Amino acid sequence: MKMVEIDYDAAKPIDSYGDGFFRVAGEVHRGHMLIFPDTVLPWAGYDDTAAIIAQAGNIDVLFVGTGREIAHVPAPFRQALEAAGIGVEQMATPSACRTYNVLLGEGRRTGAALLAVGPSDA
Question: Which of the two ends of the chain, N or C, has the fewest CB atoms closer than 10 A to its terminal CB?
């Protein structure tokens, strides 16, 4: 099997995640996070859309990590982002991390809004 190293240029990939944290471009961040190719921000959850909408000119799709299991995102959250021209794809947080990295590696305009997972989610 041929192994190919991905070059993310200056973009910020998700290196790993665990109980309540995400390691992004080598830095550990605790709690829920917004991750875009050029920035990482804390996220207060579905009522916190301002920072995401501010990225509307920079991203086409946002992967929403809904925790350990996939769940529906609230309709007002989805509607606000779609009105700003941002596609919303919901999935479990681990899947959202992997999918964000794949698209980031392809040079796609993507972001992630991730609910942290912890031991109580098991």
Answer: N
